């Protein structure tokens, strides 16, 4: 694990490095492994290799000076030494699966994601007819009365939808618009009714988030 310390190098070491590079005639192959970096360095160099990561601007200037002064054949050895001086955090190699492993079934398909609103079948909204309205008790630790309705969608499926907002005018045979979205504290309720659409009116006294509850902006007097 011998690398070239380029940061804070004295002029004597730099000069000896350039002289040894000029004397060497055979180019050394570039290898990224630390184990073979000692063979990439010139054998006639009197410079003592030290392992230290490059972290200053002076080191990059010294490396550029060495590369510019060296011949084209010796640039690969300098680049290899400079690259190895950087700290490597992982030396493990990734192995791909062999043919026999794949044939035995090491690769398995991922399961498809479960749809949160399966009755809509990849549609944002569906029209439906109200069958009946009711009240659902939320699960612990919440308490109250959640207004819900059983809706027969235009696709023929019957679902339970939550009626948001304070008060509503939904009754049997009302035509409503159903969107996706569950009620967090009501088990089995995976849909919401759209306020202000079709027969379902908006919340008249709503002042914030009016677009979610079908309320127009109040007129300034």
Automatic annotation (TrEMBL):
Q: Does the keyword Ribonucleoprotein apply?
A: yes
The GO terms describing molecular function are: structural constituent of ribosome
Please give the InterPro entries that the UniProt record associates with this protein: NA-bd_OB-fold (IPR012340), Ribosomal_uS12 (IPR006032), Ribosomal_uS12_bac (IPR005679)
What UniProt keywords are attached to this protein's entry? Ribonucleoprotein, Ribosomal protein
Give the UniProt entry's GO cellular component terms.
small ribosomal subunit
Recorded superkingdom? Eukaryota
Q: Name one GO biological process term.
A: translation
Q: Does the keyword Phosphoprotein apply?
A: no
Pfam families, from UniProt? Ribosom_S12_S23
The entry's family comment says: Belongs to the universal ribosomal protein uS12 family.
Q: What is the protein's name according to its record?
A: 37S ribosomal protein S12, mitochondrial
Annotated organism of origin: Talaromyces islandicus (Penicillium islandicum)
């Amino acid at each position: 694990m011998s690398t070239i310390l380029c940061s804070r190098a004295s002029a004597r070491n730099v000069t000896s490095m350039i002289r040894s590079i000029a004397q060497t005639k055979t180019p050394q192959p570039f290898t990224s492994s630390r184990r073979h970096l000692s063979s990439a360095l010139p054998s006639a160099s009197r410079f003592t290799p030290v392992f230290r990561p490059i972290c200053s601007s002076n080191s990059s200037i010294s490396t550029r000076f060495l590369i510019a002064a060296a011949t084209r054949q010796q640039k690969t050895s300098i680049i290899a030494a400079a690259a190895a001086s950087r700290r490597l955090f992982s030396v493990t190699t990734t192995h791909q699966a062999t043919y026999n492993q794949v044939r035995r079934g090491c690769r398995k398909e991922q399961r498809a994601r479960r749809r949160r609103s399966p009755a809509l079948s990849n549609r944002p909204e569906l029209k439906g007819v109200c069958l009946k309205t009711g009240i659902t008790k939320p699960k612990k630790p919440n308490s109250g009365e959640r207004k819900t309705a059983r809706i027969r969608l235009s696709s023929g499926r019957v679902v339970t939808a939550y009626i948001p907002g304070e008060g509503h005018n939904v009754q049997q045979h009302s035509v409503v618009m159903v969107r996706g979205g569950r009620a967090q504290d009501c088990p089995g309720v995976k849909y919401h009714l759209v306020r202000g659409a079709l027969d379902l009116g908006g919340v008249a006294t709503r002042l914030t988030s009016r677009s979610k509850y079908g309320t127009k902006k109040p007129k300034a007097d």
